[in-house]
Specification:
Chain lengths: ~425, ~375
Amino acid sequence: MTRRRLAVAGAVLLVAACVERLTAPGDCPDYCPSGQITIVDTLLTTSISRDSSYRGYVLAYQSSVMLAAHLPSATGTLDSRPIFRINGYGSRFRISTTDTTTGAILGADSARLQLYLVRRDTATHNLRLHLYRLPITIDTSTTFGSVVPFTDSLRSVNIDTLLAQPGRKDTVTGDSVVVDTVNHRLVLSLKLDSPTARYVGTDSGTVAYGIRIAADTLASLALGKGSFGPVLQWYIRVDSGATPGGVARTPGTLGAGFASFVFNPPPAPLDSTLAVGGVPSAHSLLRVAFPKFIRDSSQIIRGTLFLVPAVPARGAPADSFVIEARTVFADFGAKSPIDPRLGDTTVIHPDSTRTVKIEVTNLLQLWAADSTHPTVLVVRPQAEAQFFGEIRLYPSVAPAFRPTLQVTFVRRFPFGVP
Amino acid sequence: MSRAVRWTGGRAVGTAVVAVTLLSASPPVRLSGQDSQFGIRGLGTPGRWESVRSRSTGGAFGPFDPLSPLMEAPLADIGQLTATAAGGTSHRDVAVGGTTTALRATRFPLMGVAGPVGRRVAVAAGFTTYLDKSWDVTLRDSLLLRGVLQRHTDELTSDGSVADVRLAAASRLSRRIAIGAGVHVLAGSTRMTAERRFDDSSFQRVRQSAEVRYDGLGVSGSVLIGVAPGLSIAGWARSDNRLRAKVAETTSAITDLPRMAGGGLLFAPSPSARVAASAVWRSWSRAGVGAFDTWSWSAGAEFGSRRMPIRLGARGGQMPSGPGTKAPTEVAGSLGTGRAFAQGRALIDLGLERLERRGGGLIERVWTVLVGLTVRP
């Protein structure tokens, strides 16, 4: 009996001990703590200094895409052309899959070139793509002037027309296009017939192509490279010694051994403005005198970097690009190693002259937490050398338009004060 | 030792184990008393230095109860080693500004041990809540930031208390007079947080926290006089120096603590009926602006055998802090009972209290269920 009562009392106490609810709406100031959260917002107009720009971080051939553009403007036409080289199989190929005997490659019946359009302006009409044969000597030193004008025209295809075909396939030319709605890209397959698909054994079957685009309006697109094309499928004939004209063989597909793009005009040389973007890509370094009273404040809750464009942002109208602010591990000027952990971004719209605002709260919080961290901001394109877009910003030597930081922070709460 | 005695001793030990287990099953920060919104603005909510038995009688038996850490003199009659602890769960409705919020809290405001040392002297050690500083307030407000009115929600919390660690001694000087004295070490901490969440996510959440540590010292003395058979009077006084608040080893505030004095009357016309009354004055106004000196009173009775009595009581008084120029008031009614086990070696006391506090447009109504465990090994 006694044990049962004890158990009941214990159970009552345990159930009672499980509840806790203390949150109540405050009725200030009578029933609120005397201390309040104090927020300070300050504009640092002179804290950014010794800023400079550097170009050449990512070159055209190092870009993950090949840019094609034909953008006439009042000051000239931006003409960009992808160029790529696909190495062949050599002059001989295995006659049979069952033994290692090889025969001379007599030529190609045809070939199929696959191109990945990873970005395009869907508002552009009548987008045409022209394929040219280029010298197989193209490499990283090839310039626009050394290959343009393209002369050896192979094929042209109107992408809009092809997309309008039933099944997105042209039964006459053999071209087709696949729309990848998941990754938002087109996979273009061009059929090269025997005259255009020349397999030259003395060149080991190596071919090089160049692409020029045109449209009714401004034309701009990006072709994938590496895992995303270009890919060439040869249909070759191999001398078997028994069959007149050789036997047909379909070897494995070949990717590009070299892929880049050439363009004209080249980017304007760097001047006193802060340049971000373009090809080759440009970065700007901004050195910040981070005030001690903010570093020692309890918490930074918002930091915004304001940059005023010196001229309208350049680039294809449809190709808005993203620039990002990061900080560095050490200040070595142009070669400062960038801290990849934190970054803040904003979108730049070509032709825009609106003040660029980048939220850099994370970076300022990092500086506040780690006093040894260099207080240097790097502003760079997020996708380097993947857009022609470039913005020029006023530097710190322009007093009226210099870069500024607006910081919102919280003072230490007066804990322990009744 | 007979088998029966060994068995009942075993039950007492078992009861003690249950008591210790139940009362220590919560973190020490919960060792606090009765919360109140009136304590947010001031130093905190003063604790009740009463066992469950005393509190069930409105606190009237506090000056005469050796297990209530209010007075030391009753310890002289403790007789044997005794340990006690109390726990309570409060359901509090706070009505202010046209809205009522239901709050709940579980507290363990009392733990102590006392026993005789020598023929005339008894000592006690234990702790109780001096100030409860647990609260959680949410606010909705806005401020102009970067030229835009930004709406935000603030949450300010404090979790902890200041404990009164008491070392006390008492002696019966004669059949009629017992005296006692105590040293009080005030110690405790609160975990405080201040958080602000903006509706506009461009502004990150503000969150600051700190552990505030408190310390202070006090002394007390008391006397218990048997005026006539069944009639006793008691008087006590206490002085605490100051409460120092430190954040990260830096003193953030020093607040003077009150002096206090009280007295009581106990009348036991028969072994099965006891009535008592008491009154207390505290100079809380020393704590600064917004604090008031307080008076409180209580009256209560206990009927029936000591093995299973019925208790009831009432009390009233003032709260030490509140808005305006007048101290908030409180009034309460309580009842309870107790049950002795194992030939009186273990006691469980149960109490129920209904409390109402009023002042400055705020009304608090509280139901509190109290459980006390006492073991005499």
